[in-house]
Amino acid sequence: MILQRGEAALLRHFSRFKLHRNKVDGSCLTFRHRWMKITPFMHGFKLMSTRPNKENVDLSVFSSDRIRNFCIIAHIDHGKSTLADRLLEITGAISATEKNRQVLDQLQVERERGITVKAQTASLFYHHQGVPHLLNLIDTPGHVDFSYEVSRSISACQGVLLIVDANQGIQAQTVANFYLAFEAQLAIIPIINKIDLKNADPERVEAQIEKVFDIPRDECIRISAKLGTNVDKVLEAVVERIPPPAASPESPLRALVFDSNFDHYRGVVANVALFGGKVKKGDRVVSSHLKKTYEIQEVGILRPQELPTSQLFAGQVGFVVAGMKDIKEAQVGDTLFLQDRPVEPLPGFKAAKPMVFAGMFPMDQSEYTGLRSAIQRLTLNDSSVSVQRDSSLALGAGWRLGFLGLLHMEVFNQRLEQEFNASVIVTAPTVPYKAVLSSAKLIKEHGSEEIIVVNPAQFPDRSVVSQYLEPIVLGTILAPDDFTGQILSLCASRRGVQKNMLYIDDHRVMMKYMFPLNEIVVDFYDLLKSMSSGYASFDYENAGYEAADLIKMEILLNGRPVEELTTIVHRARAYSAGKAMCERLKESIPRQMFEVAVQAAIGSKVIARETIKAFRKNVLAKCYGGDITRKMKLLKRQAEGKKKMRRIGNVDVPKDAFISVLKRKDK
Ligand code: GTP
Questions:
Q1: Distance from the CA of 318 to the center of ligand 1, in angstroms?
Q2: Whole-prediction pTM value?
Q3: Do domains 59-241 and 433-548 have the same CATH topology?
Q4: Which of 36, 226, 376, 504, by CA, is between 20 and 30 Å from 325?
Q5: Ligand 1, CB within 6 Å, residue ranges
């Protein structure tokens, strides 16, 4: 470190800074505020490997050949965030006190569940053979629901680190993510992580990588992200094996928006990758998508907290704030260009398509306004959620929301509860079906022959439809061969059609299946995991629509149809599905003061029935006289239980019954 001036003052501030960081757990606001105080003493501070500030970060020194943009992809829990931590730590972007903190997992739900939900960007300063380089890393989520985050992160990169757990080997998302990177023609660096584990078998994993991906085994780097073993080799490989971005600062500005966040004070903060030109505060830029002009108010890089800089140059990845007031203005995949130098937009990518829809209603209608603003605020930062107003007789006014998958829906729900203290009822999830209309009147009404149905209650009757279509996915299952028999019968019970089966080593099998999305979306993965003692993994990608013989099945409670429990099922499975739903409702609805009949019906025909018997006696009846405390306790417990219930007709239904009703128990 070369400290030329104000050394003592600088060090004094450094120590104060560190103390402060420890105390506040490194929160971003405090960090920036404190850092601003240090800047006057920083004039002589030359070395980039420590925390840089606005004055000493001159990004113009990083011409394209000194830039590497890459993302970390892997199956869930194979160690992406841990490796990201190590890379940030080695390059000085975070301090050692933040070690193993998974600093890129910033949401509360990410920390609690130990999963990454949102891709995060961080710029690292790294000296390779004495030459300073700017490395931009994007940590991506591993779960299939968030593969959209992976595909858009890939668009901003020239290479990927493909991490594989040395113990578990290649899993379903490893395969899916590999193909995303391969199709985008990115350089792929295979990394075998967790070599410190007792059961680690890096040789076997290398052989799998060679067989499945055709990557020579000597290209694999064996590391332990947790202990930091060989992580320096990863940085070297990033510089040596990933090509620099082919972008020139002389060409006109072409900035690809690959992610965006909403800040209540500044509006949209758009993450951009510059495929040409440069951008600075005061520039007037146009969005190709909306053709709207904005003035750039702030530019900078992410370390992973925002670090404003004077300019961003071709090949670099950073953020811009341009006074956009709505997240829809910074559409992911859009290209920004200078007002006076128009360019052809970059290819961009397909918008995220919600694949699971569910109704969302407040527990009580008095909470409607609060919930509306919570949903609005949450969707500001998650543009992949689609929102439509909805209402139901039983649950009142609410919304029909579209999610990328069931985990996405659960995470959204959890965030509503944790970040906004909102308690909601979520109805049975459904997939987007299509109906080809035959009635001229309806075609005119809808403006097209084919309609998408995201609410089973609005499923059109067969008399006005020439064909129903259901979404199909191509699923990949990886599992030890001991479980093959059980898995095959599970797939058959879910109307799966086998496409391929391959041994990736002596014991592990990869199977490819076409499934109706509806059959796998709710509980397939859970069942697969439990039947294989956690060893099987599953991933899927959309594979279009296929004609199917679908019917609408209604559930009646004491003869009254409950719209929110209506589902669409395949005709061949209607009886078994109806019976299973009635049984599960019987289990989840508590006994009431009267008998409750739970029925499944197709049209006017009842196909299954269960009966929930009435309470036999009043539990409070005996609590008379002096036993007032016990009586109070019981009343309190009953009231608390009721809070989690919703009255439909005269029956109290627990709020989670709407989802649990779809979970099947086939083994
Ligand atoms: P998602 O973001 O949910 O996809 O997970 P991830 O791939 O980011 O994995 P993460 O970094 O969260 O690590 C998962 C678990 O593996 C954590 O408990 C880590 O502590 C552990 N882990 C990561 N790397 C290593 C390693 O090298 N050795 C050992 N023993 N454990 C590791």
A1: 26
A2: 0.74
A3: no
A4: 36
A5: 74, 76-82, 102, 114-116, 141-142, 193-194, 196-197, 224-226
